[in-house]
Known about the structure:
By secondary structure, the chain is α/β, with parallel strands linked by helices. It folds into two domains: 111 residues, Urease, subunit C, domain 1 (Roll), CATH 2.30.40.10; 287 residues, Metal-dependent hydrolases (TIM Barrel, Alpha-Beta Barrel), CATH 3.20.20.140. Helix content is 36%, strand content 22%. The protein contains 15 helices and 16 strands. Strands 1, 2, 3, 4, 5, 14, 15 and 16 form an eight-stranded mixed sheet that branches. Helix 8 links the parallel strand 10 and strand 11. Helix 4 crosses helix 5 and helix 6 runs parallel beside helix 7. The chain is globular. The relative contact order is 0.18. Fe (iii) ion (FE) binds next to loops.
Amino acid sequence: MKLLLKNIATLLQIRPLTTQKVSGPEMKELPRLVDAWLLVEDDVIHSFGNMSEMPNFQGIKTLDCSGKIVLPSWCDSHTHLVYAGNREQEFVDRINGLSYQEIAASGGGIINSAKKLQATTQTALFAQSEKRLQEVIQQGTGAIEIKSGYGLTTQAEMKMLRVAKQLGEKYNITVKTTFLGAHAIPSEFKDNKDGYLDLVCGEMMEEIASENLADYVDVFCEKGYFSVADTNRVLQAGKKHGLIAKTHVNQFTAMGGVTISVKNDALSVDHLEVLNKQDITALQESQTMPVALPLCSYFLSIPYTPGREIIGAGLPLALASDYNPGSSPSGNMNFVVATACIKMRLTPEEAINAATINGAYAMGLSESHGSITKGKKANLIITKEIPSYGFLPYAFGSNTIDQVILNGTLV
Ligand code: NIG
Ligand code: FE
């Protein structure tokens, strides 16, 4: 199957296959072609070029993209898209003055979501989650990472990961899965955190690895959740099972989570709302991708990840949605990009790099996703007629997407 896009006003984010991620000042560049064509063959980008030099294609289904921008789909490297119910009541409680931490301490938060998820069948969980996946696909997401962590029992964690895998199969979208058993301490283990970690690093991980349900392992390294030593323990156990580390660190407290993640060769460290000099130095000596989650800051009214400081230190930065019921009930990557520009002072070029090629890196997908490159997946966003790509974050509340192509197919 072939599909030709012609008269593309701007074809954005053209990169050689060798570009795995972009860092520091490179993030200001967004290589592009003006007045371009692009040929999709099966599920990949076959070729592209300037309209003035377009070969004489005949008998191929063609889309006229006059006035429109074509860019690679968003790569959302951090989500908790599989969950049960919602936490609307906690949202109202926060408006009325309770903090996220106070709600969690009184049995709400992650524990609340775990109770709901444990009581939900796999079929019902799939049905609830697929609605969210359908929506983010329409919003331009072309590859997504999905975490467990609302199960907190072996069976419920496995149920979440099975649903995540099934979603990828049904919707023909690349899904990377992450085992986040160490997301919170379940009430049964309230006074026995080590007992819970025995379960996470033992039975849970063994079963999950033996069924090949996860690519990555994650830990919520935070006061009241898991310490640096706990994080090290889980990441080490993960390594034995071939699970690469991706961690939740520095959301509320800078306590050494970045350094321990880097020491464990983490692919990414995510959140980073509070960041110190030591963390920056650790990242500079690593291949680890820092990931900012601006919708979490927006929704919880907590500080934004200091993106300018991270990029200023010569580091790369990725952006992800953190789609989850407690701290970011939205997976809209357009809004993520806009919020990064508006609140973190990223330029549109930096934000688009962060949400495409660097997001792909944070899921181990740089070789197949995240840029307009011959041979990469034909995962494309076709915008409406807009004046420039800066309009994407500028018109933050508008739907600027006209059509999306996922694995070579118009959705
Ligand atoms: O990334 N911070 C930890 N985990 C999730 C939110 C968990 C929740 O509140 O349900 C996050 O923000
Ligand atoms: Fe998260």
